[in-house]
Amino acid sequence: MTSKTVLIVDDEAPIREMIAVALEMADYHCLEAEDAQQAHSLVVDQQPDLILLDWMMPGTSGIEFARRLKRDPVTAETPIIMLTARSEEDNKILGLEAGADDYITKPFSPRELVARLKAVLRRATPAGVEEMVEVNGLRLDPISHRVTSNDQPLEVGPTEFRLLQFFMTHQERAYTRSQLLDQVWGGNVYVEERTVDVHIRRLRKALGPEHEQLVQTVRGTGYRFSTRT
Description:
alpha/beta; five-stranded parallel beta sheet; four-stranded antiparallel beta sheet
């Protein structure tokens, strides 16, 4: 299992450092942000697997930032654990209603934090993200990062691999170029939509004549992955 990335959002550097040390010892990769603006840039560019979000921050509060993330289709599925000194039940409910997946009251032990984080990630990991997936003899293994066609290895570039993984775990649905950019490239505004077409061509070439037809062009929309003609 590959190491998960956790974004720690807290305006107090000592708290971020304490959390980062505990998580890195548990084999998590950590990113840090001191406010919502910095955090949003990291969410878009780095696509963390989970966000640890402090309730009380200068400027945009943690609760408002959580609401913003949950309103955006690109970040709506990213799990959030709220960190706060507030222990009243009403505030816990407010945090959960804003979209938080869990709620930890300060002070907390590193062991409790890691345990809660693991539980949220288990619930949040979409089916198939870390599992091998196979369609008509085309097999993709996320853990070994290999793609094979009828047990023969295929040379697939890193971007094409992510694109194929997304397609194979989201079959029979048409996606626009913009949606594919958000899902595969992470909403990077510097990538033009036509870049998707280039990587689709590369992916089809890598798949070869036996499987290239699985990646279908949908006129007026974009692309889909389908076994149907």
